[in-house]
UniProtKB/TrEMBL annotation:
The reaction proceeds by a bi uni uni bi ping pong mechanism. The gene is panC. Catalyzes the condensation of pantoate with beta-alanine in an ATP-dependent reaction via a pantoyl-adenylate intermediate. Keywords: ATP-binding, Cytoplasm, Ligase, Nucleotide-binding, Pantothenate biosynthesis. This is Pantothenate synthetase. SUPFAM superfamilies: Nucleotidylyl transferase.
């Protein structure tokens, strides 16, 4: 595995790989790798000649009261895990390398952001697409892999790539879960023992909601009310949101039909967990 820390070197290597006809799969991350990230890397390995991984904690996507400084970091562990799944290139730039000067332009996101996490994190997705614009230009991948745990992010990125005709195929990958159903996340380490025991109820609430839809429920409000009540009854977490939208447009619907997403966010004492499921209703 080659570890690259400068934009110039990474861009040169990426250009040479493109010119040689090699197919490049790219997994952008903020590090502290877990099984979800490794699943993305393994799929990229199967579908491409070369696998690139980036580790960069992007300050642009953190709000003023969010956990940039607390975000877990362990580059030695990340390097070991990346080698185990046979990553070819690890791009590990500093903030100064990625943002050496004040930007003269801004990339804005005008749709799919006023709901779910985006509603409470103004500017977050602008930070996401800004760093992706840079990373895609630096690594020049054929395919880029993203986990569906953050389905809103996937929807935003797909729209962004389409809008700007960026020559990369976005590959969504299903959520990786613990044996008890909890979606794997870097933030799970902040859960207390009691919270960790309660956390699987998040996914259970989504599964039960889906079952109600399969049995004929078509009123979105009945579904979201059920989820909130279930989580509040079975956990000490505070429901941030429990919503149902059309996907990927993330627009409200009066009746459950077509491709939908049910998404939740729950605040525990030291961690805010998100989860979702998508389903298609005829």
């Amino acid at each position: 595995m080659h570890i690259i820390t400068t934009v110039q070197e990474m861009q040169q290597i990426a250009g040479e790989l493109r010119a040689s006809g090699k197919k490049v799969g790219f997994v952008p991350t903020m590090g502290y790798l877990h099984e979800g990230h490794l699943t993305l890397l393994r799929q990229a390995k199967k579908e491409n000649d070369i696998v690139m991984l980036s580790i960069f904690v992007n300050p642009l996507q953190f709000g003023p009261n969010e956990d940039l400084d607390r975000y877990p970091r362990d580059i030695e562990r990340d390097e070991r895990l990346a080698r185990e799944v046979e990553v070819d290139y690890l791009f590990y730039p500093s903030v100064e390398e990625m943002y050496p000067t004040d930007r003269t332009t801004n990339v804005e996101v005008v749709k799919r952001t006023d709901v779910l996490c985006g509603k409470q994190r103004p500017g977050h997705f602008a930070g996401v697409v800004t760093v992706l614009m840079k990373l895609f230009n630096i690594t020049m991948p054929n395919r880029a892999y993203f986990g569906m745990k953050d389905a809103q992010q996937v929807a935003v990125i797909e729209g962004f790539v389409d809008d700007y005709n960026i020559p990369v195929t976005i590959v969504p990958v299903e959520i990786v879960r613990e044996e008890d159903g909890l979606a794997r996340s870097s933030r799970n380490i902040y859960l207390s023992e009691r919270e960790r025991q309660e956390a699987p109820h998040l996914y259970k609430s989504l599964c039960m909601a889906k079952e109600r839809i399969v049995k004929g429920e078509r009123n979105p409000k009945n579904i979201t009310s059920f989820i909130k009540e279930y989580i509040e009854t079975n956990t000490h977490g505070v429901v941030d949101y429990a919503d149902l939208y059309a996907y990927p447009n993330l627009t409200e619907v009066e009746k459950i039909s077509g491709r939908m997403i049910i998404a939740i966010a729950v605040k525990f004492e030291n961690a805010r967990l998100i989860d979702n499921i998508t389903l298609t209703v005829e």
